[in-house]
Design a protein that fits this description.
binds guanosine-5'-triphosphate, 6-stranded mixed β-sheet, binds magnesium ion, 2 domains, Four Helix Bundle (Hemerythrin (Met), subunit A), elongated, alpha/beta, Rossmann fold
């Protein structure tokens, strides 16, 4: 979703800068100042390469304070907005410091005459470039981790009508999302298969609807929820126009009915303004006596009916 270049580590950045510096060519009239001009050009090329590289990193990250709330919270839960800001600040500081070191070295060189003295200035500046870059090595490593997440972040249109699928782990949420939309989520017989928020679409009456798959929720207090559960909650909070709460009455998912129903009660009280459709899945194995909609995502039973109910409820919401 974002175009962020691969964040190199300090050694790689230094390597790139020194290679470029070694290739600089200077045109000089007469030989007297040639060694100095070459030295100055090398230090400038190296420092500019480093600071341009670092500035590009800083500029390519999103400006967090203007993000839609959903993305702000998602990135905060997944990576930590403050941590990213701090690391970007360190990278920016490093770029400026490198320029200052270069300015100092260049002004010293202008005052010096001896070839050895000038060479020492170059070596000194190079050494300080390395040491300043090494000071931000943890920041660069963290930002590279953040980059890998951000470039794959789900592309969600915060304005499109959105159905969010929620429920305990392993109840069949992802298979339902796959059945009703274009999404191709991972489906497996263990809890927390879905670790992040993923999106699929379907069209109806010329309107594109988003269907969002979320990680499973456990029956516990908000403070104890893990990162994956928090992603589910923030998705419900910021994006859902309609919630499909999936229940597995067979309990093959590994969570007892009373525990699943407590999660449902919690979600209902937390999101009072959002309509919730309660669905019992795995009807191929068992059907309970309740009046809830019964489907089997596995053999596609009840899927078309579910889709019609969803459309109906979204229409009611609009009128
Ligand atoms: N018998 C039967 N099995 C199903 C049905 N729907 C899903 N399953 C199985 O239940 C398991 C979990 O399915 P998922 O779709 O990954 O469940 P999930 O709720 O997304 O799980 P998490 O992402 O881990 O929270 C898989 O082994 C599915 O094949 C169904 O209707 N009938
Ligand atoms: Mg899943």
């Amino acid at each position: 979703m974002y175009k962020i270049p691969t964040i190199l580590n300090p050694d790689e950045i230094i390597d790139k800068a020194f290679k470029r510096a070694n290739k600089v060519q200077v045109v000089v009239k007469g030989r007297s100042q040639k060694h100095k001009k070459i030295a100055v050009a090398k230090v400038r090329k190296a420092s500019n390469t480093i600071s341009t590289t670092l500035n590009r990193y800083v500029k390519s990250f999103p400006s967090f304070d203007t993000l839609p709330r959903f993305y702000y919270d998602l990135f905060d839960v997944s990576l930590g907005i403050d941590a990213m800001k701090k690391s970007l600040g360190a990278v920016s500081w490093c770029g400026k410091t490198i320029q200052k070191i270069a300015d100092e070295a260049v002004s010293n060189m202008h005052r010096l005459e001896g070839k050895k003295d000038v060479r020492n200035q170059v070596a000194g500046a190079y050494g300080r470039f390395s040491s300043v870059l090494n000071q931000i090595s943890n920041d660069l490593a963290f930002l590279e981790k953040a980059r890998r997440y951000l470039v794959r972040a789900p592309v969600i249109d915060v304005k499109k009508p959105t159905i969010v699928i929620a429920g305990a782990p392993n109840v069949g949420k992802s298979l339902i999302v796959k059945r009703i939309s274009s999404a191709k989520p991972k489906i497996a017989s263990y809890p927390f298969t879905t670790k992040g928020v993923s999106v699929g679409h379907f069209d109806f009456d010329g309107i594109t609807y988003q269907v969002i798959d979320t990680p499973g929720l456990l029956d516990r207090e908000m403070e104890k929820r893990n990162t994956m559960e928090l992603k589910a909650i923030l998705t419900l909070n910021h994006l859902a126009n309609l919630i499909v709460f999936v229940i597995d009455p067979t309990e093959y998912c590994g969570y007892a009915m009373d525990s699943q129903l407590r999660i449902l009660t919690d979600i209902k009280s937390r999101f009072e303004d959002i309509p919730i459709i309660e669905v019992e899945n795995k009807a191929d194995i068992m059907r309970s006596e309740t009046s809830r909609i019964k489907i089997s995502a596995l053999n596609k039973e009840g899927i078309e009916e579910l889709r019609e109910i969803l459309m109906q409820r979204l229409k009611e919401r609009d009128t």
